[in-house]
Amino acid sequence: MGSNQELIEDIKISLLRQIHDEFQKMKVSMTENFRGLEATMNHMVEIVRKMKAGDGTASRSSQTVSSYPNLSIGQSKTSPTEQR
């Protein structure tokens, strides 16, 4: 019976490692997507700033956008470091 328990524990450990690996892949993918979004939003903010500074045709709603600083996405201080 002891070997069955060990086999079950090994399967559990293997599944947990696979799940962890999938979560890590998702984390990397999400980070890449957020960085792409960050670049797009920063580009949009720059366009609005140029419009506002140019001929004054920027709409009232875009005037508040120009006061936002450029976005930055960094490593979360609460995210665990990979342990292997």
Automatic annotation (TrEMBL):
Polar residues: compositionally biased ranges: 58-84
Name this polypeptide is given: Uncharacterized protein
Lineage, uppermost ranks: Eukaryota, Viridiplantae, Streptophyta, Embryophyta, Tracheophyta
Region (Disordered): 52-84
